[in-house]
Specification:
With 201 residues, the chain is an alpha+beta fold. It contains 7 helices and 5 strands. A 5-stranded antiparallel sheet has the order 1-2-3-4-5. Strand 3 and strand 4 form a beta hairpin. The longest helix is centred in the middle third of the chain and has 24 residues. The protein starts with a helix and ends with a helix.
């Protein structure tokens, strides 16, 4: 075998090999159509809840079910907590994630409750790096339409959204700041943070 040809073949293959290592394995199985279909379903459920006429506590319970069904809650919770969670006890983290789930559902349930009498429609979907972005537009009574963007991946093995951007406000970035501040107020104690989250939102 010509060693120079072998070297050229290896060198020419390196960029492709490097590109493959940058893309998470599971994400390659997801496509634009599937990402859009997930958010279509999530939005249909959100529209149903916001126009159900239910009392606030019942609506928040429904929103929590929507988050559990369509969002990677564990990823969002861990991302919001950051490095503080890396060495935490499994039971402590489990309790934190559960409390975060209720907190984020109440918080964004209140945001979506502002949409009562309106609707959200998906308008576009496209790949972005190792995930997909699904663009939707919210139509509210008495307000100009605005965008709600959803970021979707299948890192956990399921198609789930892991971020929402409402009118330019990035949920992941906002929660990293908010949870970081709450953790500081609780002296870095995740248990105390968990207790605080159960009352927040």
């Amino acid at each position: 075998m010509d060693s120079s040809i072998s070297r050229r073949a290896v060198i020419s293959a390196l960029p492709a090999m490097a590109a493959l290592t940058l893309v998470p394995g599971p994400a390659s199985a997801l496509n634009v159509g599937e990402a859009r279909a997930l958010i279509d379903k999530a939005i249909a459920d959100v529209n149903r809840v916001i126009n159900s006429g239910k009392a606030e506590p019942a609506m928040y319970k429904d929103f929590e079910q929507i988050f559990v069904r369509y969002a990677d809650v564990r990823y969002i919770a861990q991302s919001a907590l950051g490095p503080a969670g890396r060495g935490a006890d499994k039971a402590v983290m489990g309790a934190y994630v559960k409390a975060f789930q209720g907190y984020i559902s109440r918080k964004y349930g209140k945001r979506f409750r502002e949409f009562i009498g309106g609707k959200i429609e998906v308008t576009d979907a496209r790949p972005l790096k190792s995930f997909f972005e699904v663009v939707s537009v919210a139509y509210l009574k008495g307000q100009a339409p605005f965008e709600v963007r959803w970021h979707v991946f299948d890192k956990s093995g399921k198609d789930l959204f892991f971020n929402i951007i409402i009118e330019g406000v990035n949920m992941l970035a906002a929660e990293r700041t908010e949870i970081g501040a709450m953790l500081d107020r609780n002296k870095g104690d995740i248990g105390r943070l968990t207790a605080a989250l159960q009352k927040a939102g």
